Amino acid sequence: MGQVNVKLVWTMENIIYSLEGKSLNGYALHVDNVSSGRFIEETNFELYLEATDGRPSETPVVKGKYFSGRGEVYTPWLETYYDNRVKFKSSKVVDLSERGLDEELVKHLSNLLPAGSHIMVAYLNHEETRNALERGVPAPATPLGRLLWKAGCTWFKDWYFAEGFREGDIKLQGNKPLNEEHRRKDLLETRKELTRFLREEKGDERSFWDARRRAKDVLKDIAREMSTS
After folding, report:
1. How big is the CA angle at 107 (ends 105 and 109), to the nearest 5 degrees?
2. Nearest alpha carbon to residue 62 among 23, 98, 25, 33
3. Cα distance between residue 136 and residue 28, in whole Å
4. pLDDT value of residue 38
5. In sequence order, what are the beta bridge partners of 97?
6. What Å distances lie between residue 84 and 56, 63, 144, 208, CA to CA?
């Protein structure tokens, strides 16, 4: 296996453990099951919700893989499996989406990554996002895309068709801009895409109403930011 870079492993684990205790409006994050990945630059981990009594959820809210980057070619990234409903031993089920905890969760994850890196969220178990992407809804107007947008991502890729069948499950990728120039370019492209969606999409289903609402919210974010830049 070659010589292990102990310093790199220690650094990656410290980055992951920086999530320990992060607040989620009455709950906290608990890091567990940290292990090495396929490569020295990869670390697997799980995140659990911890209640005020200190007891963690029975099921993880996130199963993740953190890649620290490799040289100047491969930038850091996160691949996550996010479950918005977690169970506790008391049979209590917490829905992060209903309680508004999901936005802070994804922000905490995004904060692990520097500018120019990306985060991927598998969406096979997120029916609304999956159906919306399949029907051509722009990523920022989907539930998961909106969370990535709020976490600082401005460019998106739908990994619906895995290239070479080695990329795993279908997932939505959100990229954090490298600099302000890239950010402004992404904002302009997103504004163009969402404006076209609102002008052309006439679906009457509830899912399209929700998508249009999210699209309008993102457009307001863009307008506010560009008016001050």
Report:
1. 75
2. 33
3. 36
4. 82
5. none
6. 15, 12, 11, 21
Domain count, the chain: 1
| Across 73-87, 164-178, 190-204, least confident range | 164-178
In-domain check, residue 77: yes
In whole angstroms, give the CA distance from residue 145 to residue 141.
6
- Tell me the pTM: 0.90
Give the pLDDT confidence of 100-159 residue by residue, as tens digits: 999 999 999 999 999 999 999 999 999 999 999 999 999 999 999 999 999 999 999 999
User: What's the farthest any 2 CA atoms get from each other in the chain?
Assistant: 59
Tens of pLDDT along 50-108? Answer: 998 889 999 999 999 999 888 766 789 999 999 999 999 888 899 999 999 999 999 99
Closest by CA to 206, choosing from 131, 99, 123, 134, is 131
* Position 204 pLDDT exceeds 90: no
For residue 154, being part of any structural domain is answered with yes
Task: Tell me the CATH number at 130.
Answer: 3.40.630.30
Helix axes 180-200, 206-228, angle to 10 degrees: 140
Beta-sheet pairing, 27-36 with 85-87: unpaired
Q: Which domain does 111 fall in, by range?
A: 6-178
Token pair of 25 as six digits: 């409006």
SS3 percent helix, strand, coil of the chain, rounded to 5, is: 40, 25, 35
Contact 157, 120 (CB under 8 A): no
Q: Is residue 165 part of a domain?
A: yes
Rounded to whole angstroms, the Cα distance separating 100 from 57 reads: 17
- 197 falls within a domain: no
